[in-house]
Structures are given as structure tokens and as C-alpha cells.
Structure prediction request, 105 residues.
Amino acid sequence: MEKTVLDCVIEALDGLSADNFKRFKVKLCETRKIKYGQIENETTVDVAQRIVSTFTKAGAAKMTADVLRAIGLNGDAETLETEGNDCKWRRNVHLQQYTVGKKAD
Prediction:
């Protein structure tokens, strides 16, 4: 099974120490799209799901990478962008096929 954007975001968050994960959540909330109270006690999987549902699959990897970079985790951000771009590309191909198929109906 191919990696999804959610898988890529989960992997990036799973690699963080407890302190860095807390810093990530605090910085993420500065976007004002997600409130700290919503994610304060959440696991990496729960936070990743909220990121994808809030910023969409197309924007989730980029937002996660931006937050990682903002807290000084540039290497983690670069890794995620590399993997996230691949996941995003596959998603766009799927959407393009769906759109083409739908127009043909």
C-alpha cells in the first residue's frame, strides 16, 4: 500500500522527542486554525489527523514542514517535504483521473 500524506505527517511527528512534540503543538496553534486545547493531550496520530483535516491533504505536509522549520527542526522538515511531495503528487494524479472520469460521464 502506498504512503498517504497522513502517513508522512505521522512519521514526521513520531520522530519528535516529547519536548519537541510539545513545542510543535504550541507553534502549530500560532496558525490560529487549531487551538491548543484541542491537541494538548493528543497523540502524534491524533495531531496528524487534525492537521490533515484542517489544512487538507494538499497543504498538510507543507504546514507540518513549516512548523518543524519554525522550531528549528530543518532536517525533519526537509525529509517530510521530500516524502510529502511524493504523496501529494500521487494524490493529484488520482484527482486528475477522477476529474477526467467524471467529465466523461
